[in-house]
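Sorry to interrupt, but I need a hand with the structure work. Could you write out one complete protein record for me, on any chain you like? Could you add the entry underneath, on a fresh line?
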Amino acid sequence: MTRQIAVVAFAQSDHRRTTDELSEVEMLMPVLHEVLARTGLKTADIGFTCSGSSDYLAGRAFSFTMTLDGVGAWPPISESHLEMDGAFALYEAWSKLLTGDADTALVYAYGKSSPGSLRDVLTRQLDPYYLAPLWPDSVALAALQAQALIDAGATDENALAAIGARSRAAATANPHAQLNGPVPQGDYVVRPLRTGDCPPIGDGAAAVILAAGDRARQLCPRPAWIRGLDHRVEPHSLGARDLTDSPSARLAAERAGTFERPVDTAELHAPFSSQEVVLRKALRLGEEVVVNPSGGALAANPVMAAGLIRIGEAAARIHRGASDRALAHATSGPCLQQNLVAVLEGDPR
């Protein structure tokens, strides 16, 4: 890459079980104001805007056009949208900045999972001919993956409980987390997954600003430079995959340059405790790596924003000097079907 791009600002909402009193626009606007204020930029200063959300969650077509009211309709903007997590919108914005067509980009994402049955909504991601008509929900599919890991000797229920406990203990330092502290492991949701192995259902939003080269240094004392970014996907059919491994995450990490030098921090988008086991193996993360210091998706999992939050949390640690080289991961689809990996670095201190 001949052009260096960095995350220069990150903001997120407080993640809550329900936000019935707020529309998507009202939930998003404070986040947009905060992320712009961190850089001193105005909407007119942004060269490209890209968002991620889901019409299935909103229950209406082209719902993302409403949230553009929060961005501002004037002056006219260069804008794009993905029906995916905001991490993948960041991928598009990063590509746009690499071409030199813009120097700054605003990326935002939001999701309100509380109004409907999230487990039913997520079945629409499945193969429409063989799997979707059976309506297997996201927790049941994750339980199949967890049981496959247990059968393979890669983990056990006590180890999964420890992941949940560690994540929610870390979230005590995260004022935006939905769950934190000693949350009970609880009853089985779908065996072998208990309540503590599953993500909370809630609403939330996040936004980041990207900037290129010298512009990034002007906007942020210590930019989080994106040294590599890659996105790979597994076969659509779950029967064609080994659920105990993630070749796509490993390949994305390799192409992003993860294995060139050690990372000190990893923000993993692992909505279920068992998926952290898979990702640690695929991404070759040793015990010396701090995993999900924010609490991760087990502490707050706003669908369509949780992946972007992983990138934002990793970048924020670099901004404040808590990390020098961090990995951020985002996923979409059942059982880690799609995987995006970003490697972020700060300037030498």
Q: What stands out?
A: Residues 24-39 form the longest helix (16 residues). The first strand starts at residue 5 and ends at 12. The CA atoms of residues 178 and 300 lie 5 Å apart. The mean pLDDT is 95.
